[in-house]
Amino acid sequence: MTVPSEPQEEPQETPQLRLLRRMVMLLTAVMIGGVLVTFALIVIRLSDRTPTLPDQIELPDGAKAQAVTIGNNWYGVVTDDNRILIFDKTTAKLRQEIVLEP
Q1: Which of 72, 73, 75, 86 is the most exposed place for a label (fewest CB within 10 A)?
Q2: What backbone phi and psi angles, to 5 degrees, belong to 89?
Q3: In terms of pTM, does the model score above 0.85?
Q4: Considering only CA atoms, which of 52, 84, 88, 51 is closest in space to residue 67?
């Protein structure tokens, strides 16, 4: 023979417990948002933004390049014979030559 069990009442939620539950939910939402923002910033920063250079740069007098720098409408090549050669980015023509003192 089974004894009918009395329906158990659910305990009432206190205001402090309700506040704590809402704060935990808010903290979870903020943390998820922070992870998404961090991921988006990493993707934006690491996206391919490499500048374009011509396939081939013709240096005068057989000079060898040591370094290259890029501006808006130009690129510069530092050569091993102490010169800086400034080329036009669109036409690849030599715009200026700067001789450095040794």
Answers
A1: 72
A2: -70, -35
A3: no
A4: 84
